[in-house]
Design goal:
Elements: H1 6-22, E1 37-45, E2 50-59, E3 62-69, E4 76-78, E5 80-83, E6 123-125, E7 131-137, H2 141-144, E8 151-155, E9 172-182
Antiparallel strand pairs: 1-2, 1-9, 2-3, 3-7, 4-6, 5-8, 8-9
Length: 183
């Protein structure tokens, strides 16, 4: 068995102490903070190709939407909405139902009888069909996760923000079902 010299033993012990100290301060006592629920929808096109992700995070009594579209849409403005049913059967996504509208209003922020809770600002896709944006919504996680769930739909065209029921936003080109997540 090899013995360390007293000097080497002191250096080794000092090195070990410094290494452990560098690992950081002690964790605070008590239970870890509770995890926060949020909603996430993975977007797919009509062929089943992954096309992005949407998260809805509780903030200021509503939900903050964070949208990242990685492709599958044409350049320019596209209407996006939260739809009333958590189902996205390809290729046309009609199973997502109409817009999320628990208060029975008409479509659009420009409609005096509107808007639906699922009416959202448009997204603007770049030349490669990609878009990233964030905006507040006027709904809650409880409403998103009602008995039949909810989905996020990207339409082929811009939304005129006033024509009931869908703002003349055209075909449904991307869809994702919201799932409850924790972070």
């Amino acid at each position: 068995m090899t013995r360390l010299s007293p000097t080497l033993a002191i250096l080794s012990a000092t090195s070990l102490s410094l290494t452990l100290a560098a690992c950081g301060a002690k964790a605070p006592e008590g239970a870890p903070p509770p995890q926060t629920p949020y909603a996430e929808a993975l977007l797919y096109d009509g062929n089943g190709q992954a096309a992005g992700v949407v998260t809805l995070i509780p903030e200021n009594g509503g939900l903050q939407a964070n949208v990242q579209i990685t492709g599958g849409i044409t350049p320019g403005a596209h209407g996006v909405h939260i739809h009333a049913v958590g189902e996205c059967k390809r290729p046309d996504f009609t199973t997502a139902g109409g817009h999320h509208n628990p208060t029975g209003k008409q479509h659009g922020t420009g409609n005096p009888m509107g808007p639906h809770e699922g009416d959202l600002p448009m997204v603007m896709a770049d030349a490669n069909g990609r878009a990233t944006t964030s905006f507040p919504t006027h709904t809650t996680l409880d409403a998103i996760f009602d008995a039949d769930g909810s989905s996020f739909v990207v339409h082929a065209n811009a939304d005129d923000m006033k024509t009931d029921p869908s703002g003349n936003s055209g075909a449904r080109v991307l869809c994702g079902v919201f799932f409850r997540k924790l972070h």
